[in-house]
Input
Amino acid sequence: MMSKSKEFFQNLFKPFKFNSDKDWRNGDDLQKIAQQEQKHFPFEILVAATNNFSHHQKLGEGGFGPVYRGKLDDGREIAVKKLSHSSNQGKKEFENEARLLAQVQHRNVVNLLGYCVHGQEKLLVYEYITNESPDKILFKSNRKWELDWMRRYEIISGVARGLLYLHEDSHNRIIHRDIKAGNILLDDKWIPKIADFGMARLFPEDQTHVNTRVAGTNGYMAPEYVMNGHLSAKADVFSFGVVVLELISGQRNSSFNLDVNAHSLLDWAYKLYKKGKSMEFMDPVLASSAVPEQLASCIQIGLLCTQGDPHIRPDMSRVVILQSKRPGSLEEPTRPAVPGTRYRRSRRPLGFSSTTATSSLSDSHSSGSIFNTNTASASTSALASPVRSDPHGKCSVQS
Output
């Protein structure tokens, strides 16, 4: 069993290069460090923690397989992601998430505690996150009041810091590719943690962008990414901007219909901003708790992050700085872009790259946390065609 575990660790860390730090030179060093940090969990420990993977401990299920809640002997609560033997796409996302989170440690990123390989079984062990995602609280319940302005502002700030870490401060530059309200988890202190790295990609330090297959969630994807597979950190910035505007308004972008003259939540925000009526964009339940200056600043930041030209969107280091500035001192946004939506077309429009793929799948309205007790099962079979549906509401398509 030790040989299988060693092989898993070696394969897990192959993609990582840590030339700038002598402590991270090869997979063997990383394996030793992982063992020292007790990253490897014996299978028997996880069986006991989850009551033999009891149905009553099940939090949810996706293309990778089921997720179970558990409790270790030391009292720590955990979420155990168990790879399904029959899931090819899930295997890719599972292993991708393991690789990318292996060396990630940040207050605003979900913590991968360790791994387990036992025969054919492969499992990832995470910290258990108590509260639901903003997606569920804002859009799928009558509990909006639980997210007052202070909590929403802290979510915005925390996600910004988490993305800054992934883009600039982690050992490897990581682009998440699926930032949305459903992939932000809130702990017992309402601290936000970015989760679900199944779609994430390592990003070469010496490149401004890469071309890749399109994957993400309708309503959050940057237009240049959807139309030609052009992926950069600015794609995450765009998605972050959508999340900011959703948190402020309490409205979901992909199903926005409050104003017949606005084709999206972003467009509505911009029109009110230009009229000097940004406060009308605010979720009414925030009326008693909102700090007008902070709210106006965040609306402007959300609009700057969703600009059509990725070159004029701020990077996340700039976003963190902008949050401390007064609205009047921020750059003036132009009309935001229409978020990328992937749907089947009968013909390619001009400028449509050969790397682009489209999907007939509808928007995702459910990608809740897999680390809380209220997550429903969302397992979906993959389609036989090159276009595949993702159980978390993401669209994943081969180029």
User: Anything to note?
Assistant: The CA atoms of residues 132 and 186 lie 6 Å apart. The chain has a mean pLDDT of 77. DSSP finds eleven helices and 14 strands in the chain.
